[in-house]
Amino acid sequence: MRRVVVTGLGLVTPLGADVETTWKNILASKSGAGPITKFDASDQKCQVACEVKPADHEYGFDANKRVDHKIQRQVDPFIVFGIDAAGQAIEDAGLEDMDEATKLRAGCSIGSGIGGLPGIESESLVLANRGPGRVSPHFVHGRLINLISGQVSIKYGLKGPNHAVVTACSTGAHSIGDAARMIRDDDADIMLAGGAESTICPIGIAGFAQARALNCSYNDRPEQASRPYDKDRDGFIMGEGAGVVVLEEYEHAKARGAKIYAEVVGYGLSGDAYHVTAPDPEMDGAFRSMSAALRKAGMTPADIDYINAHGTSTMADTLELGAVRRLFGEAMENVSMSSTKSAIGHLLGGAGAVEAIFCILALRDQIVPPTLNLDNPDEGCEGADLVPHTPRKREVRAVLNNSFGFGGTNASLIMRKAD
Amino acid sequence: MSDTADRVKKIVVEHLGVEADKVTEDASFIDDLGADSLDIVELVMAFEEEFGVEIPDDAAEKISTVSDAIKYIDENKG
């Protein structure tokens, strides 16, 4: 069977505009949260978010590095983040100069949970206030979710599968899993895979706040607002950014002497069939998704050293932990599990991909990232190693990454060090 | 150089992200400045906004160079 490995990484996050800066800040237990600056949020219930920082910030994002001026003007920020992260991954993998035959076997699977919400919001106001003749001719293709894959394929000449997953907060994980299967099934040798999101705009914040999903009670303490597993958690904090990996068929990567970060060995998917936003109290969907990933990997829970939890800082955190406990049994004693959403917020459709990259870096550096703000673990957390406050050096042989989305959609990825 | 020409060139530079010295009066939006048909639609909207003129579709289709735009605007602005 064709094996799939990771040979390139790219990140744009609230803690950095590249992989190493973000990871350094994650391991320094920094928080990317702050008061919302992208618009006047003074009338919003939630006034806190994890924004990608502007170019003049210490670890800010400069769109001009990899995205043409004209494209920046035409598309929503989630596409700009996605193009940049994909470019980083291509450069990291040493694939800037692919020949035509390689390009024919290289594709994209970069999705988003919501897509171009800020642009939909602003152009709707143009339509309402000034009429249809003032709506931008770039409105549609500047907002569509599959336009990261579209733009990246055009920029780099990638002529293989062109795909984009839309499964809410599971998007990033499904994107990587689906792309790995495309390589395994011989549709491609190389896939750019991941997710991006940027919905920190008035209607995005208001919509999630009205759905009672955001923490609205920490407006005066932004850095403490995302607190997975803590007794005082009260909803997630919205993040933004992108994560993209280069997936590559193992022999293809070996043959060109590529640096191999990890092997994607397990991918599980399931549906809750329960409720559009609320998690199944038994978390059976999560249990089945994780079980399927383990089965595909030919592993048992004792093989997993680190779990990057979905852990959004809602009541569902402890339910997910319950499902992990049910699956892991005695292996709970060995495994570390943390939520990096405590540091960068919830990147929605980008989350699964960004967190998969954190898992890969945990494998590379043999260290597990922390859960910030876990001051008082809630009931149900007893005996679980949730890596509070600071990272921990430890053996990391294999990692499990969970992502769950509205609609009851679940994805679990397992990766390990490649031999 | 006329006031119209200056303002047209500024809009073209901003929208297409090209160097100002490339935006000569005989430059073609598509052949010389890298625009596609939708970029021209957007440019025409920006000219309408800037100069308070209406450029109907059949007139917009005939605008292919910078000087075409300047000429149309000068002849039709109020």
From TrEMBL, chain A:
Catalytic activity: (9Z)-hexadecenoyl-[ACP] + malonyl-[ACP] + H(+) = 3-oxo-(11Z)-octadecenoyl-[ACP] + holo-[ACP] + CO2; a fatty acyl-[ACP] + malonyl-[ACP] + H(+) = a 3-oxoacyl-[ACP] + holo-[ACP] + CO2
Ketosynthase family 3 (KS3) domain mapped to chain residues: 1-417
Coiled-coil residues: none
Metabolic or biological pathway: Lipid metabolism; fatty acid biosynthesis
One Gene Ontology molecular-function label: 3-oxoacyl-[acyl-carrier-protein] synthase activity
Lineage: superkingdom: Bacteria
Leading EC class: transferase
EC number of the protein: 2.3.1.179
Location in or out of the cell: Cell inner membrane
Annotated SMART domains: PKS_KS
Pfam family, one: Ketoacyl-synt_C
Listed InterPro entries: 3-oxoacyl-ACP_synth-2, Beta-ketoacyl_synthase, Ketoacyl_synth_AS, Ketoacyl_synth_C, Ketoacyl_synth_N, PKS_Beta-ketoAc_synthase_dom, Thiolase-like
Coarse class of the protein's main subcellular location: membrane
Keywords: Acyltransferase, Cell inner membrane, Cell membrane, Fatty acid biosynthesis, Fatty acid metabolism, Lipid biosynthesis, Lipid metabolism, Membrane, Nodulation, Transferase, Transmembrane, Transmembrane helix
Family as reported in the entry's similarity comment: Belongs to the thiolase-like superfamily. Beta-ketoacyl-ACP synthases family.
NCBIfam families the UniProt entry points to: fabF, PRK06333.1, PRK07314.1
Cited function: Involved in the type II fatty acid elongation cycle. Catalyzes the elongation of a wide range of acyl-ACP by the addition of two carbons from malonyl-ACP to an acyl acceptor. Can efficiently catalyze the conversion of palmitoleoyl-ACP (cis-hexadec-9-enoyl-ACP) to cis-vaccenoyl-ACP (cis-octadec-11-enoyl-ACP), an essential step in the thermal regulation of fatty acid composition. Proposed to synthesize NOD factor fatty acyl chain. Involved in the synthesis of a highly unsaturated fatty acid moiety, which forms part of a lipo-oligosaccharide that is responsible for host specificity.
Protein name: 3-oxoacyl-[acyl-carrier-protein] synthase 2
Taxonomic source organism: Novosphingobium beihaiensis
Upper classification of the organism: Bacteria, Pseudomonadati, Pseudomonadota, Alphaproteobacteria, Sphingomonadales
Automatic annotation (TrEMBL), chain B:
Gene Ontology terms describing biological process: lipid A biosynthetic process
Major subcellular location class: cytoplasm
Highest taxon in the source lineage: Bacteria
Sequence positions bearing O-(pantetheine 4'-phosphoryl)serine: S37
Domain Carrier: 2-77
UniProt key word Membrane: no
Keywords attached to this entry: Cytoplasm, Fatty acid biosynthesis, Fatty acid metabolism, Lipid biosynthesis, Lipid metabolism, Phosphopantetheine, Phosphoprotein
PTM annotation, UniProt: 4'-phosphopantetheine is transferred from CoA to a specific serine of apo-ACP by acpS. 4'-phosphopantetheine is transferred from CoA to a specific serine of apo-ACP by AcpS. This modification is essential for activity because fatty acids are bound in thioester linkage to the sulfhydryl of the prosthetic group.
Gene3D superfamilies in the cross-refs: ACP-like (1.10.1200.10)
Entry-linked Pfam families: PP-binding
Gene Ontology cellular-component terms listed: cytosol; membrane
Cytoplasm is among the record's keywords: yes
GO molecular function, one term: phosphopantetheine binding
Family: Belongs to the acyl carrier protein (ACP) family.
Protein name per its UniProtKB record: Acyl carrier protein
Record organism: Novosphingobium aureum
Upper classification of the organism: Bacteria, Pseudomonadati, Pseudomonadota, Alphaproteobacteria, Sphingomonadales
